[in-house]
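User: Sequence recovery, please. Input:
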C-alpha cells in the first residue's frame, strides 16, 4: 500500500505541487502518492486530524488555510510561530509537527537571484501573511533596509515589528516616501495577489523607472505578471515565484522523508508543468 501525501487548500486544482512532488517521490523510490485535498474552511480541523493516520507522511497547506493549520498541529517550529502560518505538516507517528518552508523557499530563490551578501535595500509591496513570511526570509539573508509599501499604511507600520533588526519604514503604494524608497532599492518584492488577473498591478508601472539599474523585481506569484513584464522591458532582472515554490516543496519533501530532495528534477518538472498550462 502506498503512503499518502497531499495539498490542503481551497481551491487547490490550479496547484503545480503534484506535478513536481510526484516525480520526486518516484525518483526517490518512495511508494507514495501526492494528492490534491480541496478543503472548505469548516472541514480543515477534520482534514488536519486525518493526517495522524499511519499511512500519511504529511501534507502541504496553502491559501487560505496556512494560519488555521498552525493552530491544529501539536507542535509548531519557531519560523512557523513567527510567520503565524505553516505550509507543511509532518506526521511523526501520530504526532503532527508544523513547519513554514515558504520562508526557506523564498530565501533560496533570492540567494539564487544574487542576494548572497547581507546589506541590501528592499521594498516589499503588501503587508499581509505573504509579506510577513517574506520579511523573515529577508531577515535571514541580512537585508539592511526595508520599506513596506501598502494600501493601508498602518498595517505596513505594524508589520515592521516582525523583523526589528532591519531598519524599516512604512509607506503607501504611491507618493514621496514610496518613490524615495524605490530610488534606493536593490530589490522590489510584490507579495500582494494583485497581478494574478491580466493587466492588474500593485503599483503604477511608471514607478519602476525609479529603480536603480541592476535592481531585481520579484513577484511571489508564478505567473508572468504585468509587473514582471514591465520590469523586463526596463532592462531590470525579473524573477517569478516558481523557484520559490519548488524550493519550499523540496524542503517539505526532506522533512517528510528525512532524505535529500532531487531539486533539479523538481525544478524541471515544475517548469514543464507550467509551460503546458500557458
Ligand atoms: P496574503 O496572505 O496572500 O498576503 P492577505 O493577508 O489578505 O493575503 O494580504 C493581502 C495584501 O494585499 C494586503 O497587503 C492588502 O492590502 P491592505 O493591507 O491595505 O488590505 C493587499 N491588497 C489586496 N487587495 C488590494 C488592492 N485592491 N489594492 C491594494 N492592495 C491590495
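Assistant: Recovered sequence (278 residues):
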Amino acid at each position: 500500500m502506498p503512503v499518502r501525501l497531499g495539498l490542503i487548500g481551497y481551491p487547490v486544482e490550479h496547484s503545480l505541487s503534484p506535478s513536481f512532488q510526484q516525480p520526486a517521490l518516484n525518483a526517490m523510490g518512495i511508494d507514495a502518492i501526492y494528492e490534491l485535498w480541496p478543503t472548505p474552511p469548516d472541514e480543515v480541523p477534520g482534514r488536519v486530524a486525518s493526517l495522524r493516520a499511519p499511512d500519511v507522511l504529511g501534507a502541504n497547506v496553502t491559501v487560505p488555510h496556512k494560519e488555521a493549520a498552525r493552530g491544529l498541529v501539536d507542535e509548531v517550529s519557531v519560523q512557523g510561530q513567527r510567520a503565524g502560518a505553516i505550509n507543511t505538516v509532518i506526521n511523526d507517528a501520530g504526532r503532527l509537527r508544523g513547519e513554514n518552508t515558504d520562508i526557506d523557499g523564498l530565501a533560496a530563490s533570492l540567494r539564487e537571484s544574487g542576494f548572497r551578501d547581507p546589506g541590501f535595500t528592499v521594498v516589499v509591496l503588501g503587508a499581509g501573511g505573504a509579506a510577513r513570511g517574506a520579511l523573515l526570509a529577508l531577515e535571514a539573508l541580512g537585508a539592511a533596509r526595508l520599506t513596506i509599501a501598502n494600501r493601508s499604511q498602518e498595517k505596513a507600520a505594524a508589520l515592521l515589528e516582525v523583523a526589528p533588526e532591519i531598519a524599516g519604514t512604512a509607506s503607501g503604494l504611491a507618493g514621496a516616501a514610496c518613490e524615495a524608497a524605490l530610488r534606493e532599492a536593490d530589490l522590489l518584492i510584490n507579495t500582494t495577489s494583485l497581478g494574478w488577473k491580466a493587466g492588474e498591478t500593485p503599483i503604477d508601472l511608471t514607478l519602476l523607472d525609479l529603480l536603480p539599474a541592476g535592481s531585481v523585481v520579484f513577484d511571489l506569484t508564478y505567473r508572468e505578471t504585468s509587473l514582471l513584464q514591465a520590469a523586463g522591458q526596463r532592462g531590470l532582472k525579473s524573477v517569478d515565484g516558481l523557484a520559490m515554490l519548488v524550493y519550499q516543496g523540496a524542503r517539505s519533501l526532506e522533512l517528510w522523508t528525512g532524505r535529500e530532495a532531487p531539486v533539479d528534477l523538481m525544478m524541471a518538472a515544475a517548469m514543464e508543468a507550467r509551460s503546458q498550462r500557458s
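The chain has two domains: 3-100+243-277, 104-240.
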